Amino acid sequence: MSGCVICGGHLPSNRGRPRKVCSATCFKQHRANRNKAKYLRLAASLPVRQCAICFSPIASPYIKGCRRITCSEGCKRQRIKDTLDQKKPAAKDRACDECKKVFTTTLHRQRFCSRICQCRGRLNSPSISKPVLYCGHCNKEYRTGRSGDGDKYCSRECSFRAMRSRRLERADRLMAGKYTAVYAKDCSTCAQFVRWGKSPRAIRCALCVSNKRDQVAYNAVMKNDKRTESYTRRGSGRSCVACGSMFCPIGTKAVSRVTCSDVCRDNHGRAMKTVEKVKRRAKTTEVDPSFSPQDIFNRDRWRCRICYKPTPARLRNKNHHASPELDHVVPLARGGAHSLGNTQCLCRECNGWKSDRMLHELPIADIEIKRLRAMAGGGRASP
Predict the structure, then answer these.
(1) Is the distance from CB of 340 to CB of 291 less than 8 angstroms?
(2) Can you list the domains of the chain with their CATH numbers?
(3) pLDDT for 50-90, tens place per residue?
(4) Looking at residues 97-114, what average pLDDT do you find?
C-alpha cells in the first residue's frame, strides 16, 4: 500500500501485518467510516418502514442499535403525547357537595369544585368536625387534629410540663424506700427484738410462728432472718459520711455504700475531689498537715475575712454565695504555702472575686461596698 487510506500520508514501517493508517486520528476516522458502511449495508438489506404518525418512509430505521418507528423529532413528540392521552382517565361531570355546581374533573375522589368550597365543606361536615377534648395538664377545652400527644394536651408547653411532672414523680417513687432509716423490728407477739429493717411494719419471730404451727410463715421468717444476717455482715445500720444520719444499706452494692442518698453521695464526691485537688497542689508546695479546713473555719468563726459576711456550716459544699470556702492569702499559683498562717475563711462570692490576687491588690472601694452590704443584710462586721 502506497499511503494512508484517510490522509494519503506516509505509512511508518511495521514488522507485523501491513498498516492502513498513519496515526491514531486517522485510525478513529477509518473505524467510523467502516461502521457507517456496515450500517448502510444493513439498512439496504431491510424492508422500507413507515412512520407511525405520518406514514412516510423512514430513511434509516436503525439509530444506535434501536429500531426507529418515527421519521423525525416532531413525529416522536406527537407519539409521546398520544400515548399520554391514552393513559389519562376520562373526564367526568360531577356536582359539588357544597355549592351543587356541576364541574368537570378527571380525579376519582374530587368532591368540591374549588378550594373555597372544600374549606367550607370541611368546616360544615359533622363527620369531619373535631371533637372537644380536655387538656391533661391544665384541664382546658380545645380542638385538635394532631396525632401523638395532640389528644392529651392543648399545646406543646402543657405536654412538656406534664412530662417534667411525670419524671419528677417517677424520681420520687424510685428514691422513696431506696435509702431509708433503720427500724428495730420487734415481735408483735412476744415483744422481743427480731432484726433490723427498712420499714416499721410489725413482724413475728420464728419461735412465735412455730408455736402457732404455721409452717409457711415460719419458712418466710427464717428466710428473712438469713437475709438480715447477710445484710448485717455487710454493715447494716451505718452512719452517712456526709450528713451523719443512720441508714440501712440494702442492695447489691451495700458493702461499699457509705452515704444515705444520692444527694449525700454527690456532696461527698465533690468534697473528695476537692481534697484530692488540694493534695495534688500540695505536692509542689509546703504543706502543714496538722490542720483541716474545719479548723480554719472555726478559727475565723465562720465569717468571711473580706466582707465579714456569716458563712454558716450548713451551706458548706453548696452552690450558694455565702457558702464557706478555704482561701490562701498568698495564692498557691504564686508560690504560697498550704499552712495555718496562709489560709483564711472566705465566702464563695469573695473567693471567686479575689481569684489569684493578693489582698493589697483588691480595690478598697469594692471591699467597703461589700462590707456595707453585709451589714445591711444582717451580718455583723467584725475586724
Answers:
(1) yes
(2) 24-87 (no CATH), 92-124 (no CATH), 133-175 (no CATH), 178-283 (no CATH), 286-376 (1.10.30)
(3) 888 888 887 665 655 567 788 888 888 888 888 887 777 77
(4) 87
